[in-house]
Queue: 3 jobs
Job 1
Amino acid sequence: MKASAANADAQILMMGYSPTGGGHTDRLLNVVHKSVDEGTLKPGSTVVMHIPEQWMGRDRPRSLDTLATKLKANGIHVIVAQADKSVYGYLDARTGGSDDAKIIERFATYPKRNDSPAPRLLANDRRQQINGATIGSITEARSYSSDGESFKRIPVISAKQLMTSVHNTIGGAAFGSKVRVLTDMDPYLQKAAKNLGVPDEHRVDQQNHAILLNAENPELDMVPEKSLLAKVLGGTGEHVSHIELGAKNTLSEMVNSAQTFGITPGMTKEQARNRVVDYVLEHGKRAEVPDAGNLNAPNFEGIIVNPDLRSASEVKNVVYVYAHKNTNRIAQQINEAVRNDKQGYEETLFIFCGAKAIHGANALHAGYLADGDGVTVAGAGTTGEFAYLHKAGGSKANLMVFPIAGHNEQAANVDYLERDEATHQHVQAHVVDDMFSNNLDAYIRKTSSEAGQKYTAEAGTMEKMMGAIADPSSYVQQTHDLLAGRTGAGSAEMATSKRLSQEEETLRQSGLLKANLHVIKMVFQGLEHLENAIEPPAGGSDGRSRSTSRVRATPISIKLTAKDDENSHRFDNFGQFVHALKDNDWLTRNMGNGQQRLHAGNVVLLSEARTLFDNAAYSEPDVLRRNIARLKEHYGEALTTGF
């Protein structure tokens, strides 16, 4: 690292990201690949990979080894360490969406991670992870080796200790000039770098969650419900590379798919559609749709089509489906409708996306190139590609889109599509409820009857779509250029970066939002104490307690940070804790900044939390457990988490 600091051409790149879902990982690694390919990360440099903890027990992706090997081959030193905390999301097993209640619980109880015993959610996470020893300096971290062991049992170090030790190792002057910080939802690394003197222009955070902010009226974001979002977005003055829906090309690989289907720019849209349909009819996987009673069946991949349709001339429309947890439900309905020659279904080719859906081809690309209509969840991938093809590619396809329940970002994506000039006429938004089947029937009838309008002579050729997918613009390039200092001062990308950076910094510095986070920590740590203190069920064959719940008269401590300092509050018994939570003056002094008075009107769910704790000692254990779970869910519904 000292050699990199002394090398005039070299840099020290420090990277970190959220492990949630895996999307943040590869998105970030692609930027580092680009830096090597374009020569902005030169031989003699050092890359510090501050890897997050394992997510939900899953192995770390092989793409980490791929990047590290490439870096070494290009004369770049690689150091590996594990972050002691990350922005960590959870999935709802039933819906496939974000489990916001758990996300908030983890955040709120994390200051007690070193306590014994640790909060139960954190203890459960640790049981799924294999961590290395805790270290205090970059000098104790691991140099990458291609033996396959570098990303196992990684030494653990906090962002603050990591940055401090790098600063001490190379000196303050080199730290301010040579260090670059690249993150994808890692506010801890950005904060540590900022505090120790890495200039704002040397730091970039790549994110798509800024769609949850109000671009036209930023003051509307200064609400308690966005206090956690303000925390995870960063807000330390770094450049923001915003992955805006439909603004850049993410479909460069679709050029290869077009070659697979034999599609050229001069073809009419109908000719292109026919090439796709004939290929899919021949190579599409025709498999049994899982039975409705088989709840553990994998998502259906393949095609569903009337067996009498044998060529493109007999197919009226193409519909692609990308629906996560709802895939099999939709497949069952479509399969039954096709069998019964239901209106709209009988002449439609349905493609259920997946790696094995079409032999030798990408199923989602097939749907796009045919200008097929979609039935999808509202993830950033499919909604962004839909938006891009309408803005830049001349698409006239429709989309039946449904956000996964409780998913903040997906709801915002739908709102964007419904408001955007290029897409709003082509979007139908629904929720998965009792009317979903009827809504799907209506959508299929409508898109089938109107399908011909997409392929008229007036629709033109494939030139515009082929040009769009070959466009060199990309979010990877955008992030790379911000990091490398290549973004023009007057460019749209720089204007967006500055606007979001300023707004996120304002959000993070809000005293009211910080106070709300403190009260949330107090509430959830109180709930953890309460759950541990509930007397176990005693008596009765149904397992319910026949006596009044008693809260043990044990002391309770509340921590706003991991340290036992002025940010810790100890109560001799639970009654004292409840009294403090109900005292606006106490909250204002100890949870806020002492200036803006805190009360139930400006603190999220404070009244509901006070009621639960006030009644805790008089509630039956089973009732109390249900009330605790319900309150956590209400916090998940009220707060914007960023997932």
Job 2
Amino acid sequence: MVTKDAALYARFRKRAAEISGTSPEPKKKARLSSPETSAAQVGLSRPAAQVGPSRPAQEVPSTDHRGSGSTGTSAMLACLAPISQRPGRHPLEQRRSASEQRRSDSEPGSSQGAPRPPPPPPSPSRPSLPCPPEADPPPERWPYLPSWEVFEGDSALDDPAVARQVFHVALLPADQAKIRSQSYNSFMDGVYCSVVRRLHELETLMHIASDYRDRGRRYQRGQEKAEKKLRQAEARLGEVELLRQELLARVEAVEGELRSRTEELEEEKGAHALARSELHAAESRLSKAQSALAACEQEAEGAKLRAAELEGCVERAQEEA
């Protein structure tokens, strides 16, 4: 009986095979006589125009028996053909040496599982340092150069072939081999763990989002209070500005009145000075008049004395006559 998880896993394997460019083999043909037959079938099932990174073709027998179906065993999907056997490759990549092929096959996660080749002999021009016999030399690593046919203007959202090319570049060959070599239980355990991690991440993100929403609400309330206080302060500032303008108008009025009073005072001072000058002139005229009056009085006294003398002379003249 096929369970829901088994069907989901089978659909995932079928989808991975479609993205990789191979057609999934039926369960009745899962048991092949030799790896060469599986590689030949995989090479024939691949389209000629498909270009991308692939793995050596080898049928991996399933070690995990699930369910009680007609066959009783679940066969693993065959790996893709090696890069050197893919059609449409660049001639330079097809002329790789056998040593480089063995090094690439001995990388961690390779589907062939070939033994690690011995380290290359030291160069005579560069003498190597003696290493301890118990320490193994580190494995030599080679850069992975994916090959794909994607041109400017292609869209992975509309073209499935471009999406498969992008998936080939995003998923490394070691990861592809690791996914194909996993058993059903380990695959589902990884899916469950990934789902739980994603749930925890989503819950954490939800808590963070709610926290930020609460902070945003608090900040918004504080901003509203600050804006309200700012509006009140602006209103008070407007009132103070009006009062200042009124006071300035009053000050200007008082200054105008003060200037007018000052001008009047200056005029009064001028009039007072003029009156004092007239007073001084009148006093001088008065003194002149007084001196003239004294001179007239003296002349009058002299005239009286002469008149008295004339009268005495007349009386004497009359007496003598």
Job 3
Amino acid sequence: MRLFMGVAVALVLVAGCSGHETSLDECSDGVDNDGDGRIDCDDLACLVHEFCASVGMDAGPDLDDASVDAGPDEAGLDAGLDGGADAGQDAGGDAGIDAGPICAMELILTETGIRPRSMDWADVDGDGDDDLAAAYDNAPAQVYRNDGLALVATWTESPQGLCGGVAWGDLEGDGAPDLSVMHCDGTGGGYSGFFHVFRNAGTAPSSTPSFTSATGLWSASMLWADFDGDTHQDLLLGTLANIGPESRIYRGTGATLVASPWWSDATRLRIIAARAVDVDGDTDLDLVVASVRPRSGTGPEGVHVLYQGTGG
């Protein structure tokens, strides 16, 4: 699995900072020197430079003059609103914002031979940075903690299975994302597909699942949403219904999931993706799914089907 990261000088202005330092030598690592409550522009540029340098990437030109050019420029903006382009941003490369990337890097998070299958982002530890959950075809799911600059594996699923999928949802309604992990099969074969839910333990999912489904489900997709309108999140499990049980919704109680499905798909679609939206504006969530035809036999292929929600 690869993560591509890019940073451009334009992000310095988007961040809402004001420049006071004039060179990298005067950088002070993200300090608000003028007391305006914002990191000074060149300090922020310096942090980017240090980050790029730490990973061996080119920090790019013009870090020390990433500012708006106040001089005349034919391709610039009309600052006086008089119809003339007389005081705009410099479109050139030596004074103004460099439109190109400062650095771009690729993080390879997995070992050779591990096949990624599913990803989802959420701030599991509450530090303001979204963390990454990833599932694999042939390895246990993992959570990678994000500290703002790097992703570090901090949690590994147990028990595990094959052809996995992950989805964050707030099972308990406490604002802390819990993690559901599904598998189309167990590690020992036998087509014992299942899913389980791991509560949020503060900085990572718990080490053991708080809910585990029955086996034999041939799981293909998951979606958290309040389908019954009781303010508790429920879980849709999409399945390969041509070779196993139909897709179903498990009702959330605010503490756990009810083991018996609240809703089952009588049409037995192979639901590989789903979204919950209020299509008709009645405040009840409706369900849109993507289905594929089985490799053998008949059935709808590439069909998006709308299931109209009626609340509880």
